[in-house]
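Task 17 of the worksheet. Students: predict the tertiary structure of the chain below and write it out as structure tokens. Keep your answer in the requested format; marks are given for formatting as well as content.
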Amino acid sequence: MPLSTVATRRTPLTGPRTPKYQVIAADLSSKIRGGELTPGSALPPQKELSARYGVTLATLRQALQQLEADGLLSQQPGRGTFVAEPRAAYRLDSLRGFAEDLSAQGRLVATQILGQTVSPPPSWVQAHFGNRLPAVRLERIRLLAGHPAVHQVSWIRGTELARTDLSGVSLYAALAEHGIVVHRASESLRPGLLDETTAALLRQPPGTPVFQSERVTFGLDDSALVADRATILSTMMEVRTEREVSGLSMQWVQLP
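Model answer:
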């Protein structure tokens, strides 16, 4: 559907209980989800849209902000408002691995193994593993739709997985095949900037904003099984949370 036809008929905005911005958001959402507005396409200028809907710019912007929060639109300063590309989510509250979680959503995820060796772990890993050495050092690049998105270095206690091909299987699944049960994981995130080495691996300029993740996975006896650090491009992924009475849900969301 041509963009010029967006909201050519003014949507009734006189509902007694529904705020005008929600009516606009619902109308645009319907057009996006129905395929009338395709991913990557630009919406008309805000002044034009507000006139078509018969509302103020403030009301229209409230609707656009809601759709951006829902992951349907991307507002780019100086360029305009665009329909967002389909997004992928990685659940932080799940014990599934990164690639396994995204693949379950139908996303094209590939893993490139950069190194898999038995090595003495660094001090921060030893602090979790104690004297239970040696460990397997696994270095990987995660690609989303062919684009490098995550650099990850995992330290796996013991040597059971030293020769296992982990390019096409979840690390947690590989542990399970060796009778090692994953019980829980603790993960922290902080913002950072790409250093030169990791920037080359992720094909991005040094200084690109990233998330830096540190995650420790524990077994049934509450001993650490895996300790890893990941650098995640924040130009491709963002963190989303949903707060409910029953608890907090957190997700990685792929940006357009």
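Marker's comment: The chain has two domains: 3-83, 89-254. The mean pLDDT is 81.
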